[in-house]
Amino acid sequence: MAQHSSLNFLSNSTSTSAPDTIVDNKTGTTMGALILSLVFLLGLPGNVFVIWSILARARKQTVTTLLILNLAIADGSLMALTPFFIIYLILKKWVFKKMMCKILFYLCLANMYASIQLIMLMSLYRLVAVLWPQRISVITSRRTVMRVLAVVWALVMVVSVPAIIYRDVRNEKNTTLCESFYDDDKSYHAALQYMPEIVLGFVIPYTVILVSYICILRRIRQTKFRRRIRSEKLILAIVLTFCLFWLPYHIVNLVQVSWGLCQEGPVKTLLGKIWHNSRAVTSSIAFISSCVNPVLYFFAGKSYIQREGLAFMARLFEGTGLDSATRKSRQNSQNSRDKDKEADTIMLKDKDQDSVTNSNSNVKPVKNGK
Questions:
Q1: How far apart are CA 164 and CA 104, in angstroms?
Q2: For 304, which of 97, 284, 312, 354 could close a Cys bridge (C-beta 3.0–4.6 Å)?
Q3: pLDDT value of position 310
Q4: With b meaning 16 or more CB within 10 Å and e meaning fewer, what string describes 286-319?
Q5: Which long-range contacts (CB under 8 A, 24 or more apart) does 56-59 make?
Q6: How far is CA 324 from the centre of its chain?
Q7: Cα–Cα–Cα angle for 283, 126, 222, nearest 5°?
Q8: Structure confidence by residue, pLDDT tens digits, 34-90
Q9: What's the 3-state SS for 5-63?
Q10: According to the UniProt entry, which residue ranges have a biased composition of type Basic and acidic residues (predicted)?
Q11: Predicted TM-score (pTM) of this structure
């Protein structure tokens, strides 16, 4: 039986391609459980602190803080789910109900999509703010931003539905597994389900992010406002760490897509062994990306700690956002326009004075009252 799971830790095997399940891989399950335990202890309180900092301490919820807030909500939600998967890996069987099996893996996939889409929005926002600062106010009103965020969350909820459709609880090899099950002649369904993850969760967003930052960095090198580089470094670090921790997972996805499309034979058997032996570890490593952002924020904002106390992270987001830089650009543009208007006014006054003088010089003097 061909097997597949979306963002799964344990996937059982086909009868011909991979005789063992990932449950039988002690190294993979042990490493996965250890990684997830550390991720939970570090990531959940870290993301909760970020959420609290923005909601309770931020002076104003700008575009930057709203994006960071939603990213922390997505990451924090993912961290809250990790205890279920830790138990799954330690016991090597699914002890929760069938509905929990569907909902938990659905939420995992939805939050993965949300995280990368929010990071892509950060990159696009910075692209517009750096290249076209005079137009940023048109597309970044609070109402517009809230609508965009609502659309993003709605889309990720929709594209994650296959995790609910295919996920099921079954007994395989004397153990209970929460997996996506397919008929023997439908292993290509693995490709149908994994390809959206690869395309929508990695290829498209990272292409947009890469192009955005190439344009941003080129523009920064052409301008004198070097202080913007500091904020770009923080967001660039978020992008790179997300890519670093999710890349192995998507490579395994690609391997499983190839396995699903491959004909029975030694190549299919080899591909099956690769993704079975790698799935637990690479999925656990992917979770690290959701706990590393608060660590990056801490190091980026440590200069604020002594002065701002517990509000240091809120001050960091306010300081690193391009909202202030955009306002300065608009203010500079307004000042330039004011100076031009002032110059035009002075020129008009000079012209009026000249016309008055010329008019007076053309008046003939009246002699003897005549």
A1: 9
A2: 312
A3: 65
A4: bbbbbbbbbeebbebbeebeeeeeebbbbbbbbb
A5: 57/310, 57/311, 57/313, 57/314, 58/314, 58/317, 58/318, 59/314, 59/318
A6: 22
A7: 120
A8: 999 999 999 999 999 989 988 887 777 788 889 889 999 999 999 999 999 999 989
A9: CCCCCCCCCCCCCCCCCHHHCHHHHHHHHHHHHHHHHHHHHHHHHHHHHHHHHCCCCCH
A10: 336-354
A11: 0.76
Q: What is the mean pLDDT of residues 345-356?
A: 49
Domain count for the chain: 1
pLDDT of residue 136: 77
Place of tokens 């701002």: 308
159, part of any domain = yes
Quick check: 321 pLDDT over 70? no
Question: What number of CA atoms fall less than 13 Å from residue 218's CA on the CB side?
Answer: 8
Residue 78: give its domain's CATH number.
1.20.1070.10
Does 146 reside within a domain?
yes
pLDDT digits (tens, 9 = 90+) for 114-137: 999 998 998 888 888 888 888 777
pLDDT band at 9 (very low <50, low <70, confident <90, very high): very low
Classify residue 130: in a domain, yes or no: yes
* Rounded Cα distance, 31 and 37, in Å: 10
- Residue 365 is assigned to a structural domain of this protein: no
Q: Is residue 369 pLDDT above 90, yes or no?
A: no
| 205-214 mean pLDDT | 88
3-class secondary-structure state, position 179: strand
Give the amino acid at 201. Answer: G
